[in-house]
Amino acid sequence: xxxxxxxxxxxxxxxxxxxxxxxxxxxxxxxxxxxxxxxxxxxxxxxxxxxxxxxxxxxxxxxxxxxxxxxxxxxxxxxxxxxxxxxxxxxxxxxxxxxxxxxxxxxxxxxxxxxxxxxxxxxxxxxxxxxxxxxxxxxxxxxxxxxxxxxxxxxxxxxxxxxxxxxxxxxxxxxxxxxxxxxxxxxxxxxxxxxxxxxxxxxxxxxxxxxxxxxxxxxxxxxxxxxxxxxxxxxxxxxxxxxxxxxxxxxxxxxxxxxxxxxxxxxxxxxxxxxxxxxxxxxxxxxxxxxxxxxxxxxxxxxxxxxxx
Length: 309
Fold this sequence. Notes:
Layout: H1 19-25, H2 38-42, H3 44-57, E1 61-63, H4 71-76, H5 81-103, E2 111-116, H6 137-151, E3 158-164, H7 167-177, E4 185-189, H8 203-210, E5 216-222, H9 229-237, E6 244-247, E7 253-255, E8 260-262, H10 267-280, E9 284-285, H11 293-305
Parallel strand pairs: 1-2, 2-3, 3-4, 4-5, 5-6, 6-9
Antiparallel strand pairs: 7-8
Helix pairs in contact: 3-5, 3-11, 6-7, 7-8, 8-9, 10-11
C-alpha cells in the first residue's frame, strides 16, 4: 500500500454528512426508488447547495449523490442505461461545482468521493442491511464494474463504496476494481453489532481483506449506530494497515411501524463522540443518516481539539 499522503486519502480528516436528510429539509421529494438521485432530475442546484454547506461546515471530502444510481434501477423505471450513466457523471459535476464555489471562499484542499451503494440498495427491499442476495458472485462483480467504468472517466478523486453488508460483496468490489487500476477506493461496511458486519462476518476479517488490495486506501463503517463505533474502530485497527474512517448515523432509530425516526440527534453530543473516535484511531469522521452540517461542524471542532488539526 502506498503511504497515506500519496493516495486520494491525503488531507481527509472530516467527511460530510447525510444528503437525503438535507434534501428533505429543503422540500425535496426523495420517496421514489432512486432516493436522493431523483433530485438530479428535478433540482440539481439544491444538491450543489448541500455540498457547499458541508464544505463550509468543515468537510474535507464530499460524496456524490450517486449511491442509489445503477442501470438496473433506471431500467425498473423504464429508463435506459445511458440515463444512469449520465446521472453518475452529473453527480460528480455538481460536487465539483460546489468545490469551485468554495475555493473562492477558502483554498484548502478538498476531495470528491464518488459514492456507490451495495447491490441490495438497487432492490429497494432493505437487503443492503442483511446482504442475503439471490445473485451470483460474477453478477455482483458485473454490477459494480459497470458503474466503475463510468466513474473512471470523471474527475472524482476516489470511489466510496458505502453500506457494504458482507465479506463476499467486498470481495466482488475488489475484483471489479482490478479492471480499473487507476482508481482508488474505500470500502465502508454497515455493522449489526460491535464485532460483525450486517451479514454476520467478523468486521476484523472484512478489514483484513482490504490489506490485499493496493487500490483500497481505507476501511470504514457507516450507517451504523454511534454506540458501536469505538469498538469497531478497535476491531479494524487490530493488525491492519489501512486508515479507518467512520460515518455513523445520528443516533436516531427508524421505527418501521410509524415510519418515523425516534430518539435524539444532538450535534454537540455527536461531536463529543467524534473526539472519542479520533482518540480510538479513526483517521476521518463524518455522518450518515439524519446527520447534517451542524454535526459536521461539531466533528471539525473535535478534530481541531485533538491537537492535530
